[in-house]
Amino acid sequence: MGQHLGLPMWAFAAALSQLEGMTPKKLRIALLHEEPEDAWARAVCDSTTSDEVVARIFECCEHENIQVVSIADPLYPRALRYDPTPPAVLFYRGSLSALQQRRVGIVGTRSPTPSGVYTAREFGEQLAAHEIAVVSGLARGIDGAVHHGMKLHYDDVAHAGHGALGKPIGVVACGLDVVYPKSNAGLWEWVGENGLLLSEYGPGVQPEPYRFPQRNRIIAALSEVVVVVESRESGGSMLTVAEAIRRNIEVFAVPGSPRVASAGGTNLLIQQGCGPVTSVDDLFAALALDHRRESGSSYETRVSPDAHDHDVLLACTDGAVTLDHLVLLLNRPLHDIAVSLGRLEALGWVVDTNGWWEALMR
Predict the structure, then answer these.
(1) What is the 3 state secondary structure string of 316-347?
(2) Membrane-spanning residues where (predicted)?
(3) CA–CA gap between residue 292 and residue 286 (Å, rounded)
(4) Domains, the chain, ordered by start
(5) pLDDT (tens digit, 9 = 90+) per residue, 148-157?
(6) How far is 263 from 229, CA to CA, in rounded Å?
(7) DSSP reduced 3-state for 66
(8) Packing angle between helix 185-194 and helix 142-157, nearest 10 degrees?
(9) Which of 87-96, 103-112, 131-140, 279-288 has the lowest mean pLDDT?
C-alpha cells in the first residue's frame, strides 16, 4: 500500500501510464525495476498534486469497475509478458482467466458484406460452443459480428444448463469508460460480464487514430491464430496481420468474391500463402483440435426451403450470380425467381451483395 495515501500499488502504476511523455518502454523499465509508488515519486515533483492524481484515478477505476495489472504483477498475462512490445499496464473488466482457453483472433473490415457478417457470426457461435475464446477489437463490422455470434450461442444455451463456453475477449483502443463505437455499448457490457474487456489505456482516454495500430498488436499477441474474414488490401486488419506475422502467429483468410472490394485483402493474403478458411473445421485443424462437426449438426437452425426455392438455392451454390443469370440458367420468369430469392434471403440461405446472389451453406 502507498505510504502517504493508503492506495494500492496498481493505482500508482495506472497513474504512471497516463503521464505525458511516459512511453510504454520507459514505463516497462520503471515498473520492472522499482515499486510503482517509488517510480511515481521519481517521475513527479509536486507531491500535493500528484497525490490528487493518483487518488482520482483510483476512484475512477473503482467506480467504473476497472481492474489494473502491471507487467511486474504475477497475474499479468503470460501471452503478453514475453511479447516483443508488451503493454506495461493493462486495464480490464471481467476475468483474466479467459486467456487460459484456446484463442482465435478474428478481425475484418468495418464495412462488411452480408456474407461477411454471416460468416463472422457463425464462427463466433461455433467457437463459443467448443470452448474456444475469440479475440477481437469490438469495432463495427466483422469485429462486432463475431462477438454477436458468441452472444447468440450464449443466449441459446442460457436455460439449458450448458457447461463451459468459449469466452469473448475484446481489446479496445481507448479507456474502458469511453465506449467506441457507441453502437456497440451493449456488446462492451456483455463482453466485460462474460469474458474479458481489455485496454492498455486508462479511464478517459479517447480513441485517437494512432491508438488503433497499438491495439492491433495486442490482438495479435493474444491469439494463437488470426483469421481475417473480410478486408480491403489496405484495411486496418492488415496491420493486425503484420503484427501476427512478426510474432510467428499463423494467419488465415476467408476467400471472397473478386468483385467485392472488401475481399481484396483476404484474397491477396491467400495468394501470398495464408491458409484459406471456409468453415470452422479449418480453425479446429489449425489449433490441432478434433472438433469436426458431424453431418446433421445441431448448428443448422434455418427452415429448409421448399422444392420451388431449392432449385434457386442450388444455382447459387457454385458462386455469386446475378438475377439475370439465374433467369437464363433456370428458364423461369424473372419475377418468380426474385420472389424465391426474397424468401431464401429471409430464411438466411442466400445474401445479396451489390446485385450478386450467393448461397450461405454450412
Answers:
(1) CCCCCECHHHHHHHHCCCHHHHHHHHHHHHHH
(2) none
(3) 12
(4) 9-91 (no CATH), 96-286 (3.40.50.450), 307-359 (1.10.10.10)
(5) 999 999 988 8
(6) 8
(7) coil
(8) 60
(9) 279-288
3-state secondary structure string, 73-95? CCCCCHHHHCCCCCCCEEEEEEC
Locate 321 and state its grid cell. 450470380
- For residue 159, give the DSSP letter: T
What residue type is assigned to position 57 of the chain? I
Q: What angle do CA 265, 270, 275 make, to 5 degrees?
A: 125
Tell me the DSSP string of 197-234: EEESS-TT----TTHHHHHHHHHHHH-SEEEESS--TT
Quote helix, strand, coil % in the chain, to nearest 5.
45, 15, 40
List pLDDT tens digits, range 77-101.
988 988 999 999 999 999 999 999 9
Cell numbers of 284, please? 479446429
What's the Rg (C-alpha) of the chain? 23
- The number of C-alpha atoms within 13 Å of 66 and in the hemisphere containing its C-beta is 27
pLDDT above 70: residue 159: no
pLDDT of residue 95: 94
Q: Long-range contact list for 310-319, CB < 8 A, 24+ apart?
A: 312/337, 312/340, 312/341, 312/344, 313/344, 313/349, 313/350, 313/359, 314/359, 316/344, 316/350, 316/357, 316/358, 316/359, 317/359, 317/361, 319/257, 319/358
| Most distant CA atoms of the chain, gap in Å | 84
- What residues does 90 pair with on adjacent strands? 69
Nearest-angstrom CA–CA distance, 224 and 246: 13
Q: 78 near 86, Cβ under 8 Å? A: no
Q: What is the pLDDT of residue 160?
A: 56
How does residue 131 score in pLDDT terms, banded at 50, 70 and 90?
Answer: very high
Q: In this structure, how many other beta carbons lie within 10 angstroms of the beta carbon of residue 344?
A: 22
361 pLDDT higher than 80 = no
User: Cα 308 from chain centroid?
Assistant: 39
What is the three-class DSSP state of 191?
Answer: helix
In this structure, which amino acid lies at residue 186? G
pLDDT 10s digits, 163-194: 689 999 999 999 999 999 999 999 999 999 99
Q: Cβ of 5: how many Cβ atoms within 10 Å?
A: 16
Instruction: State the residue for C-alpha cell 511486474.
Output: 72
Rounded-to-integer distance, Cα 25 and Cα 207, Å = 21
